[in-house]
């Protein structure tokens, strides 16, 4: 039998985590524990696409690799998908950390004109080129730590012009950088000070002026709203997301992050693709989300950064059959880290998710949370060759040995882009 020639064959993985079988819908309940592990596994890519995933013995019979990589003693798995980031922004907010350490809350800082509004000022001042340059640095950090696809939101412009500038930066970064980006319009991220007295007029601006422009230039696949007490009400959020749907932008929601607010219920009613945060989501709200097929995206790095001991109740969500996903929430205020491995460690140590559940949540379920479940998130025939070789003998070790970067190599679209944890 003639062997199939491939560009790269990775063989002898101590564990190949295929995550196979969930390209059509995310994993739920006990399914999260099944990583589709192949011991002494092999995976091959040709023209950027996965053309084989199986045992090394089988690969040796069927495959000839132009390049062969020996992954003995290593875990080989799909690239991480980060389904919630605020990637593009100006400035930074390190002074808020000290304020919080001295007792100020996230909302107090925002209400005093800091927080999101501080990033809005810096983002408005930045040029498109500056935003791209800064975003590129963050994408390099992501890629070195194993993120191969990420969602990226606007939301630090809050004027038509500045929201478009952020979305354009995301578009340019997607063209320029190996990490694939999925863009989300978050014009309703805060009420700018100009509209404090007339918040509904800002909602009018979002619906009547921002959304049509974003849609015209096809700048966002999703629309998100910060639905929270003191920010956007449930009714304002509904209005914005329904308007976005009429332009073909699929709904997402920042829901029940700081107080119980009915965000989970709204996400279910709108059949949103995801509802994110959910620390204070009601049990009823979670049940409605499960029923409506809304993916809970959990962001455990955020309460960690906000010095809170209140985390989303991942154990209850999994018990109720929810298809949980994990993201970083990378942003300049409440979670300034690009590292999925960090978010995963906190999911383990603070939300008590099991290592296998965490890996499902950070790959295939995260892919579904941004509508990419058919393209990425697992090592299966026809999917993108987005592959990590991790310096760990088994998948549990990835959560056990925390606070380091376990990534040895990253393949993006079948090309080696990271070696020994560094960009090539
Ligand atoms: O800049 O504080 N929660 N939005 C909603 C954020 C956190 C990002 C920020
Ligand atoms: Zn967020």
Helix content: 25-40%
How many E strands? Answer: 17
Write down the overall geometry.
Answer: globular
Distance between the termini: 36 Å
How would you explain this protein's 3D organization?
The mean pLDDT is 98. A hairpin with a 2-residue loop joins strand 15 and strand 16. The protein is α/β, with parallel strands linked by helices. It has helices spanning 56-62, 94-101, 106-111, 116-125, 128-144, 160-176, 199-216, 234-246, 263-269, 283-292, 301-305, 314-319, 340-351, 355-362, 364-369, 395-400, and strands at 4-17, 37-46, 49-55, 63-70, 75-78, 80-82, 147-153, 180-188, 222-227, 250-255, 274-277, 295-298, 325-326, 387-390, 407-412, 415-419, 422-423. Strands 1, 2, 3, 4, 5, 14, 15, 16 and 17 form a 9-stranded mixed sheet that branches. The chain has an 8-stranded parallel sheet with strand order 6-7-8-9-10-11-12-13. The chain has 16 helices and 17 strands. The site of 2H-imidazol-4-ylacetic acid has 10 residues, from helix 4.
Please supply descriptive tags for the structure shown above:
424 residues, alpha/beta, nine-stranded mixed β-sheet, eight-stranded parallel β-sheet, 16 helices, binds 2H-imidazol-4-ylacetic acid, binds zinc ion
Layout: helices, strands, pairs:
Blueprint (H helix, E strand, L loop, with lengths): L3 E14 L19 E10 L2 E7 H7 E8 L4 E4 L1 E3 L11 H8 L4 H6 L4 H10 L2 H17 L2 E7 L6 H17 L3 E9 L10 H18 L5 E6 L6 H13 L3 E6 L7 H7 L4 E4 L5 H10 L2 E4 L2 H5 L8 H6 L5 E2 L13 H12 L3 H8 L1 H6 L17 E4 L4 H6 L6 E6 L2 E5 L2 E2 L1
Parallel strand pairs: 1-4, 1-5, 6-7, 7-8, 8-9, 9-10, 10-11, 11-12, 12-13
Antiparallel strand pairs: 1-2, 2-3, 5-14, 14-15, 15-16, 16-17
Helix pairs in contact: 5-6, 6-7, 7-8, 9-10, 13-14
Bound molecules: 2H-imidazol-4-ylacetic acid and zinc ion (ZN).
